[in-house]
């Protein structure tokens, strides 16, 4: 047994693991900023800054692991490496054990430590959770092509429509949502293709346009013409703010510019507090209708529209609860659907909902992420899981930052549909993650190879 390469002690090895563990999590935070934000410096500071505490915890865990198990792990790697090296040694010439194989083994260990960890930052955790609501909705589709209020419940046009829009916001075309021989579009055609109810008609137009289908010829009907017949001479639909707002959104999705009369009617329905109510001017304002009207008035160039948008944004800002969410009516407590409409209204008005932190609260998107259950569904409120398919569909649009109307989804050639919501995997959208792990591992391996992992041994075959 002769002397070999210099020994790297317990503490140097632990410090290498600490640096690599911390560097990986910081790189992941930057990757989340690139993938899920508007790429501003402010957002970069938020993503990295919020993650530093979690990053430090992860790096400290790597350090402690190396301190506790480093020597034993090193001996195991050396023993395994020597066994791998036997076939390469000449029978008459002692050859020192190569540092490359131990370094490769260390690469694998560091990769496992980094890649298999719990989410390192609040931003990384939030982004990774979006795959869970998507998988939940995909797994909730029934054999008839539709969706019920919850997985396994009978299909309903209302829940099917909002599930479709939620999935479309995440890049899944409703035209390709298939379960067996029946698709979602087949279900919509058979259930409300004629769209007798105006609310169903508006929702159907939004869904089929997000699928890239024509609203002029669907299930034998010109849905645009049917909707236009519901408009009253004053420009409204049944003198109701919500139906008129969704009529504007549906027409826009079909490529039809809403009339100035309709937009002007919406502007006039604003309350003294800046909000909008279901029944128009004089009725109690609520967050849901205010958010939907902001979407309808986005980009509108009629008298008073810009001022109305500014006041509506102010109304929403004032009614954020301390938990970060929004109530339907002031004082009722936050819920996911009202929060989703607030976020979409703000997005449509060009206001970043992530920047809203009233009285030190978390942001509205963070409130929604906090309602995501283990199975991927979004709860209506804390401890309230009613109609999870409907709630998850609306929340997903807000979390994806996609206000109505949605653009047509360019469907991929093949779209995987999981059998159950349990198919969701953390960070499914982070395709670059394995490359980050491998790159950091290679740097660590080269460093350790240069200084030597342990005392080499000479061995005769």
Report on the structure:
This protein is mostly helical. It folds into two domains: 10-126 and 430-451, no CATH class; 131-423, Glycosyltransferase (Alpha/alpha barrel). 53% of the residues lie in helices and 2% in strands. The protein has 17 helices and four strands. It has helices at 10-36, 41-85, 100-115, 122-129, 131-139, 157-169, 184-192, 198-210, 223-229, 241-253, 260-268, 287-297, 305-318, 336-348, 364-369, 388-399, 433-451, and strands at 178-179, 182-183, 326-327, 334-335. Helix 1 packs across helix 2, helix 3 runs antiparallel to helix 17 and helix 8 packs parallel to helix 10 (241-253). The two termini are 13 Å apart.
Question: What descriptors fit this protein?
Answer:
461 residues; mainly alpha; Glycosyltransferase; 2 domains; two-stranded antiparallel ribbon; 4 strands; globular; disordered C terminus
Q: Roughly what percent helix?
A: 40-55%
Strand content: under 5%
| Unreliable sequence segments | 1-6, 86-98, 107-129, 419-432, 453-461
CATH uppermost class of the largest domain: Mainly Alpha
Largest sheet: 2 strands, antiparallel
Order of helices and strands: HHHHHHEEHHHHHHHEEHHHH
Q: Per CATH, what is the topology of the largest domain?
A: Glycosyltransferase
- What's the count of strands? 4
Q: Could you tell me the radius of gyration in angstroms?
A: 28 Å
In whole angstroms, how far apart are the ends? 13 Å
The CATH architecture name of the largest domain reads Alpha/alpha barrel
List strands and helices in order, with pairings.
Blueprint: H1 10-36, H2 41-85, H3 100-115, H4 122-129, H5 131-139, H6 157-169, E1 178-179, E2 182-183, H7 184-192, H8 198-210, H9 223-229, H10 241-253, H11 260-268, H12 287-297, H13 305-318, E3 326-327, E4 334-335, H14 336-348, H15 364-369, H16 388-399, H17 433-451
Antiparallel strand pairs: 1-2, 3-4
């Amino acid at each position: 047994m002769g002397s070999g390469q210099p020994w790297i002690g317990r503490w140097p090895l632990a410090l290498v693991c600490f640096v690599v563990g911390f560097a990986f999590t910081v790189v992941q935070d930057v990757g989340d900023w690139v993938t899920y934000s508007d790429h501003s410096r402010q957002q970069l500071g938020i993503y990295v800054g919020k993650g530093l505490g979690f990053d430090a915890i992860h790096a400290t865990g790597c350090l402690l692991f190396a301190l506790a198990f480093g020597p034993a792990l090193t001996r195991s790697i050396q023993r395994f490496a020597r066994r791998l090296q036997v076939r390469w040694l000449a029978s008459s010439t002692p050859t020192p054990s190569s540092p490359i194989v131990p370094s490769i083994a260390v690469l694998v260990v560091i990769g496992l430590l980094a890649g298999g960890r719990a989410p390192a930052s609040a931003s990384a955790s939030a982004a990774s959770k979006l795959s869970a609501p998507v998988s939940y909705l995909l797994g909730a589709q029934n054999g008839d092509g539709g969706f019920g209020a919850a997985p396994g419940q009978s299909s309903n046009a209302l829940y099917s429509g909002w599930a479709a829009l939620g999935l479309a916001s995440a890049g899944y075309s409703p035209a390709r949502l298939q379960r067996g021989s029946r698709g979602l579009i087949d279900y919509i055609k058979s259930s409300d293709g004629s769209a007798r109810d105006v609310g169903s008609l508006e929702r159907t137009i939004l869904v089929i346009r997000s699928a890239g289908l024509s609203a002029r010829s669907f299930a034998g009907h010109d849905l645009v013409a049917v909707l236009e017949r519901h408009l009253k001479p004053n420009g409204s639909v049944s003198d109701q703010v919500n139906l008129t707002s969704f009529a504007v959104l549906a027409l826009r999705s079909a490529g039809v510019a809403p009339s100035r009369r309709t937009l002007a009617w919406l502007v006039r329905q604003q309350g003294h507090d800046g909000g909008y109510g279901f029944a128009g001017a004089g009725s109690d304002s609520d967050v849901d209708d205010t958010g939907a009207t902001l979407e309808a008035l986005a980009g509108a160039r009629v008298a008073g529209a810009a001022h109305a948008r500014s006041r509506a944004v102010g109304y929403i800002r004032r009614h954020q609860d301390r938990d970060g969410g929004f109530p339907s009516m002031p004082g009722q407590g936050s819920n996911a659907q009202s929060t989703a409409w607030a976020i979409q209204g703000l997005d449509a008005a060009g206001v970043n909902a992530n920047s809203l932190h009233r009285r030190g609260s978390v942001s509205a998107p963070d409130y929604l992420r906090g309602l995501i259950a283990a199975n991927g569904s979004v709860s209506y409120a804390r401890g309230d899981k009613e109609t999870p398919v409907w709630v998850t569909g609306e929340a997903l649009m807000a979390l994806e930052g996609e206000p109505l109307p949605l653009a047509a989804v360019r469907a991929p050639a093949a779209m995987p549909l999981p059998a159950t919501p349990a198919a969701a995997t953390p960070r499914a959208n982070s395709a670059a993650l394995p490359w980050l792990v491998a790159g950091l591992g290679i740097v660590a391996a080269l460093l350790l190879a240069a200084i030597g992992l342990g005392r080499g041994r000479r061995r005769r075959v």
